UniProtKB/TrEMBL annotation:
Its main location: other. It is found in: Bacterial flagellum basal body. Belongs to the flagella basal body rod proteins family. Coiled coil: none annotated. Residues 359-400 form the Flagellar basal-body/hook protein C-terminal domain. This is Flagellar hook protein FlgE. It comes from Pseudaeromonas sharmana.
Amino acid sequence: MSFSIGLSGLRAVSEELNVISHNIANVNTAGFKAGRAEFAALYSGGQAGGVEMNNVSQNFDRNGDVVSSGRALDLAISGSGFFVLSDSKGQVAYSRAGMFQKDADNRIVASNGMALQGYGVNADGQLVPGVIGDLKVTAANVPAKASTKVDFVANLKADASKVDTTAAGYTFDPNDASSYNFSQSGKLFDSLGVEHTLTHYFVKTGDNTWRTHYYVDGKPVQSGGADQVQDLVFNADGSLQSPTGNVTLNLSPAGANPMAVELNVSGLSQYASDFNVSRNQSDGYTAGDMTGVRIEQDGSLMAVFSNGQSLLQGQIVMANFANASGLQQGDNTTWTQTFSSGQPTLGVPGTGTLGSLTSGSYEGSNVDLTGELVNLMTAQRNYQANAKSISAADKMTQVLFNSF
């Protein structure tokens, strides 16, 4: 009996050495989770029968270090959860290895070729939640968009000098700095993507009253056959009294569609501080080609274009399990669900129990190399001890045979 007990110990420790060696070999494998050999005693008819390796459990409770890579499609999960992957046959797997890339079909895929899963977008670029599929980048370029509104937020210096617009010979002239107090320029884009310069000229006409002249590309904006101007009236507390709505600028750029630009001036104020503009932004842009992709913390996949615009391409979906230890190992960095793991709980990063994403990084192995080396030495001693028990049993058997 002692021979078989010692032999079972050698076999079990040998399997433990395989687990430890596997951990050490994968100390630099992204998303790898360290395994641990778990043993169980063997009994036969109430008599001790040795030991066997009952299970290899993996440590999902400890995250690996976040390794910065600088690659836009590398992702690290901070917290719980798994990436959801699918192959061409529809087989689903789960992974913590966040080293992704684009394939020939512009899908976002892992190193094993399985496609990252998430919510897609419709023809209008709106996210379609509830429908999970392969994430891919579909936009190669973005057409020009004509400006339809401008948000203008500024402070006009309350104690600025008045300009006597009633004086004989006074004429507003953008080339004469004495005919106005302040000016500010911003960009507009027509339907062809051609850039135009909109300049605001502010003239203080009295206490709490100003007049604005609008010029595009150095020419005054016309309204009813005359230069378009706008009178501004401020309250005694510095807030804008009028106009109460947007100012509409009607433009006719050459070769492009007519434009009606809504100028939002509700953010104007009049205080004694210096003239400053905190926002002068239109919603238009020129055409652009895709220059790259980026992934937000909430898993939003964005295509980035040369004109500075970004378009939503989809959103990553993650999964979590009530018993992650019950997952079945596929390869070093993927797992599949089992009855023991339970059904996956799906959601976007940062919601529920799911962790958030860090772009430009990936999660390294959670193997504790120092601890594995200690385990290795302990396993070696256990192996030697079991071998010693077999040697001792052999000597006792020889003594018994020699006694006859």
